Amino acid sequence: MTDFHDTLRSLRVWDTGLPAFDPDSAPGEPLPLFQEWFVAAARAGQVEPHTMSLATVDADGRPDVRTLMLHGADERGWHFASHATSTKGRQLAAAPHAALGFYWPAQGRQVRVRGQVVTGTPEEAYADLHARSTGALAAALVGRQSEPLTSVGELERASAAAWERAGAEPDADVETWTLYVLEPYEVEFFQGDARRRHLRLRYRRASDGTWTRDLLWP
Ligand SMILES: Cc1cc2nc3c(=O)[nH]c(=O)nc-3n(C[C@H](O)[C@H](O)[C@H](O)COP(=O)(O)O)c2cc1C
What we know:
Layout (H helix, E strand, L loop, with lengths): L1 H9 L19 H14 L7 E7 L5 E7 L2 E3 L2 E7 L3 H8 L2 E8 L4 E11 L2 H9 L3 H9 L9 H17 L8 E15 L7 E7 L5 E6 L2
Antiparallel strand pairs: 1-2, 1-5, 3-4, 4-7, 5-6, 6-7, 7-8, 8-9
Helix pairs in contact: 5-6
This protein binds flavin mononucleotide (FMN).
């Protein structure tokens, strides 16, 4: 316990050289700024900048959150993939709105994205599944995501069989694998500052598809 509290108290954030951010020169839409910050984070040595939190709500309106990989960000929105039969997949089917959270401590930057979530076509899901590694295909082939697991041994057997199948049948499909696209209606960029003069720039999409920008108090 003491170790925990001592460690917790010893930790700092924004204790390093952070990049400058000039909201006045930010683009009129959030996507190019997201892509610019993403590349800058990767180049600054940020570990796994393509991991993000995905928040959804359950049928009772209670929030849920987990980490996912970002599979793309383009004019359609922010892309991720998972099993439609998982907890998140069922939550998204019932309440198709979600939020994404990125934190890139190497640069003291946070990006929040809120939007409606739509599913891609089966062809897009198939392409997504096969654009990645054998391990990713094997993981998807295991299936049953979010179901209770009886024992670790059961997982080991299912995973071994899935790896074997992924190697022998690289074109195998996984019916539940789904590509999701979060169509953003709000994107916020946060630039941390050592003197705590953090800058927050929020983009909101109007009904005609144009974006407005506001600064927010930190
Ligand atoms: C770094 C990291 C990346 C992950 N990427 C994915 C992913 O892209 N898709 C996915 O379904 N689960 C991914 N997971 C697992 C999820 O966090 C989660 O455990 C799983 O999707 C089940 O969530 P659910 O029960 O809320 O549906 C990842 C976990 C970590 C730690």
